[in-house]
Amino acid sequence: MRYGLSLVRQSRAAVQTAARALALLAVALPLNSQGGVIPAPATVAPGTGAFHVDSTVVMQVPPGDRDAAAAARYLADLWTRTNALTLPVRAGEAGDGARGAARAIEFRRRSGSPDEGYQIEVTPQRITVTASSPAGLFYGAVTLWQLLPAALKSGEIGAQTIIDAPRYPWRGLMLDSSRHFQSPAFVRSMIDWMAWHKLNVLHWHLTDDQGWRLQIRRYPRLTSAGAWRIPATVPGESSPKPYGGYYTQEQVRRIVAFAATRHVQIVPEIDMPGHAQAALAAYPELGAIDSHPVLPVSAKWGVHSHLFNLEPATFEFLQHVLDEVLELFPSRFVHIGGDEAVKDEWIASAAVQARARQLGISNANGLQTYFTQKISAYLAAKGRRAVGWDEIMQPGLAADAVVMSWHGGSVAHAAALQGNDAVLAPDPKLYLDHRQSPLATEPPGRISIVSLKDVYDFEPHDAALSEAQQRHILGLQADLWTEHMQTEARVEWMALPRAAALAEVGWSPQQRSWHDFLKRLAPMFARYRAFGINYADSVFGIQTAYAPEGGAVRVTLSNLPELTDAAPEANIRYTLDAGAPNLRSMRYTQPLDLAPGTQLRAATFLGSEQASRVFAAHLDSHSGARRTSHQLELCSDGVGLLLEPGAAAGGVPDAPFAVDIMNPCWIYRGMDLTRGPRFTAAVAPLPFNYELGADAAKIRVGDARTPEGELEIHIDGCETPPVTLPLAPAAMRDEVTVLPAQALPLLPGRHDICLRFARPRLDPLWALDWVEIGE
Ligand code: ACM
Description:
- By secondary structure, this protein is of the alpha/beta class.
- It has 18 helices and 42 strands.
- The longest helix is centred in the N-terminal third of the chain and has 18 residues.
């Protein structure tokens, strides 16, 4: 549901046998004594002593073993970047490195390790990484990197034996490059940080209604026309530049080659028969409206109605497209979409209906089955396997097709029962377009929260399946739908560290420890920082509440319950002199009454480690009196979003607006009306660019009294006669406007105030930025 209301299989037995053997030796998992490895290895058995890493250590690889050399060089590069420690990599036989003074890190082959599995043996004299596969050697290197805390040029890695292998073979992220486009450099950097978490599938969503992003030589209009859209604006705003971009085949080849060095498989997605509007904008004759109108590349979010038709020429087009896709992407898996194909156009089209009669297909779902079968058979003939969103689960689905289950786990369960492989990508649990906390620092996205802990607590195990059936669950992935991620920095924020939690679910044994994960996260953040990644520190973030207190502002700080419940050692430290908080700063224990003009800086510490960024606030006379849309309650959550003014807008708010686009309405609890306060509101018009189908009729527009509408202030409920503030001063602007202040009635006591808009039409949508109460 986007905007509605409503590999190679791995022998788990082999890992388990190794793990059982080691479990006899293992005492406690000493993960935290180290740099913090994510995902947690399957088994860790502590030894005696420690290996001292410093610049005198050499890395040894077997002569001629290019995979071992690549793994060792990757480790050397990572330590150079995060620890300013550069170690030489030398070819040599086992044990050579121990001669003379040098301590050695050796990479060796071992037969019998599970695919992607590896072992690391740390003794005071030597570290040995062994694996059968290139991926195993690589993952051994990644684990070893994380055993040394970032920033240390030298340090100790405790003696231990790690035997590790993944729980699931498919550990993926989906990147939507259609709704917003990311540069090839970003895609490469994402592949890199995926590899640090042993994530091994990048599902690349390359086509959709809002843009076709892959160069296809045979059909140049797919990118010359289909890759560009005119962004939505508010009425009256001048037309902005086209937005878009695409990946040339040369760029894709380089990205695929890079991904191979990181053991990441790229699964390309060409979405069909729906989510096709950008392709139809380029080639209208492929569409299912018989008159073949020229459509724009869409600048709206939601479920669009335009489908490919079922003519032989259209299948020929799709097959030619897939031919070039297969040339570029060696992956066995090719994703063919299949989601949200609303069948209205097929039902209304005389040509489609004639084709259906000819095929003997009597209903529209049968036509989608026909579509899926034809395309998956084409792929199968080329040695590839079709992957589709779970709408492809229809009778007659090819046995080798993979079902990507987004409507919860039940479709994956059904797929496994009937012998199809499935990947879990449930909406909303693994949909990373949701904000991850209630903090005002969250960027635009869906307002209902998918926290780091929600992802961490996602459990793929389906006890109702037999062991053989469970092997059909290939694994899991989280999806980065980018409607609201306008920048690459925001993609990083939405992805990390939730991708780290996903990685632990997909790789580590089922018994996971949230508290332990939190402790390993702060050291991982240091690595993200070394690479300049804009990760979210939300789980360690600081919630603030302000209230007037005499002439001062009462400031209440808190951490989120998912942190405080699990980690009693979490604490907030603060300064009032503009200095950065550190371990010697005051510890926050109770609300602070602060004079306007005070600079408050605070950060969360986990034990002795600073875990959050520094939160900074400059208190002024408004601080206690103002509430942003985040600090108000939404009246409903039909489609709750965090939004900001359009791309061209100035006046960007401190935090995006919290708004239910189905019903822009907020509750201000407990407003003191005893003195008939002055009420001020800041509002902004936003483009209404949503395709909601029949749900559009459910949107509350209200009964506007003036040509531009009003902000209504209702006291005690949303249906009482309102005080109204005309929106005319804010109309035809794409920025935040402070409306003229209005005196509210004088009433005894505190009251719940309902704030909502009455507008003459759907577009623009109005958002409340903040409201303030004064004397
Ligand atoms: C989807 O969210 N449309 C797969």
